[in-house]
Amino acid sequence: MSDGLNTTFALLESTANEAAVGALLPILDSSHRVLREGALKVILARRTMTGHREVLRRLHTLDEPASRIVANQRGLLSPAIRDALLSEEQPLRANACYALVWFREYDLIPVLLKVLEDRDGPDADLAARTLVELIDLLDEELSAPAMSEIRRDPQLVRQYVVSALEQSVERFVKHKRREVVEALVLLSGRDSASLLNILRSPYHPAFLVLIDILSKSRHTAVIGLLLSFLDDARAPSGILSVVSKRIDLPFVQALLRKVGRQPSAAVAANLKRMDSLAWLRSGGAVLDSLDDRAQHAAVRTVMASGTSRSDALAMVEYLLLHGKKGGRRAAAQALEDLHGAQANALALKALEDPDAQVQAHVVVQLRRRGIPGALPRLVEMIDSPHALVRKAARQSLAEFNFARFLAAFDMLDEEVRRSTGMLVKKVDPETIPLLEAEMQSPVRTRRLRAIAVIRAIDAAAPLEAALIRLTGDEESAVRAEAAQALAVRPSRAGREALGELLTDPSPAVREAADKALHGQCDFARWKAAVSNPIH
């Protein structure tokens, strides 16, 4: 720009003569870019309503350089935008709405609402669309305050806008604009007095619109507001009804993220108030769309809810048979609270699951279910290749432990001793170590009983070294019984120990060793000898 033009524009900007604006306005439409931009800068700087109004009138025609000039001075245009919104000139109102969104003029939302509420006004729909765009922009800025373009605290702006929206919602019966209710939902928290008033008043003019928005909107803010009510011990029944009826995947996923692996006390209490969950009855459509973690949470959600046990069992069955690993694990665990023939059959099926944790969850349930053949099946599971399953099986057979068996041993007949003892040896990994300790007891009767247990449960092989030590026991009855116990497939060391007993001072010991070596033991005679030991 030449010095002459600079001087002229500087004079037009500084003069008090309002005629300067009139002189500048035609230049806004000049074919020369330098002149247009110079005039635009001066008009913006003079801050006159007439000049700013004309800038707004041309807003949709500005090229990129001119748009940048306006954007840099957008704060100066607020009074003109307010005036244009209320003008009778439709193109000007349209440009004012465009400017509202472009400049993010949230402070002018109350004026916009006035236009929107005029049901007979020609631009009510335009104002409604503008409101939706502005609220979406504000919501974005609230979600990422560090990136906000608002020139003051976004939360203060939100409070100001919410207040205006609440007042407009109270006039809903006059304007019936859904957009106002939706805007309030997007920006409000569950503590909004206006929202609570509507939710607790089914005859409120905006009640059905609000429920419809909460039921259908997939906007993150709407879903967040809806789910936040689950943390309220006095959540309105209308909210819980909406939560229970929504089946869209984004909402279900958000609900399950909120519930997580274990719902809070407040969330659990509200879930219990829901006697159904619509997404449960969508077949596997929703469940199949969930990831591992969400399927796990789905089980937690259903089991915490007030939904029927038949619906819960149907979901558990579906996930056990078709679910991902996390879903199957949670379903197997939840099966513990479900009873009946169908649940029992499902538990048996779950034992074939490839995942060890699924099997383990079911294993601990088998005996409590009273399923025929559960005991032999549990014994089989002790040989599982998975440590987790073996541990669960032993936990389920905890009463079959060596300490209890030993205490009752003398009262059991031979058949029970053997059958129970073999089970104890399989179930209790401490059987052999404890039995070996018992063989070292200073009490003769305990050592004799320990050897009798070894014979009853076929434990001579792992305890052969201890039995060999007992062939040198000071008590002849102990030496004789140790010899008989060694008769079962003795090793070379066992045979050598038996050979040494052939010269034992006690005839009963020599006879026992001889029969052990030659496999001619008569158990009845041996038992009589033990009952009347020769010392």
How would you explain this protein's 3D organization?
The chain is mostly helical and 535 residues long. The protein has a domain at 402-531: Leucine-rich Repeat Variant, CATH 1.25.10.10. 67% of the residues lie in helices and 0% in strands. It contains 36 helices and no strands. It has helices at residues 3-14, 19-24, 33-46, 49-57, 64-72, 78-85, 90-103, 109-117, 124-143, 154-169, 172-175, 178-187, 193-199, 207-216, 220-228, 237-245, 249-259, 265-272, 285-289, 292-304, 309-322, 325-334, 341-350, 356-363, 366-369, 374-381, 387-396, 402-408, 414-427, 431-439, 444-456, 464-470, 476-486, 492-501, 507-518, 523-531. α22 (325-334) packs parallel to α24 (356-363). The chain is elongated. Mean pLDDT is 88; it is low at 520-535.
Write the layout of secondary structure elements.
Blueprint: H1 3-14, H2 19-24, H3 33-46, H4 49-57, H5 64-72, H6 78-85, H7 90-103, H8 109-117, H9 124-143, H10 154-169, H11 172-175, H12 178-187, H13 193-199, H14 207-216, H15 220-228, H16 237-245, H17 249-259, H18 265-272, H19 285-289, H20 292-304, H21 309-322, H22 325-334, H23 341-350, H24 356-363, H25 366-369, H26 374-381, H27 387-396, H28 402-408, H29 414-427, H30 431-439, H31 444-456, H32 464-470, H33 476-486, H34 492-501, H35 507-518, H36 523-531
Helix pairs in contact: 1-3, 3-5, 4-6, 6-7, 7-9, 8-9, 8-10, 9-12, 10-12, 12-14, 17-20, 20-21, 20-22, 21-22, 22-24, 24-27, 30-31, 31-33, 32-33, 33-35, 33-36, 34-35
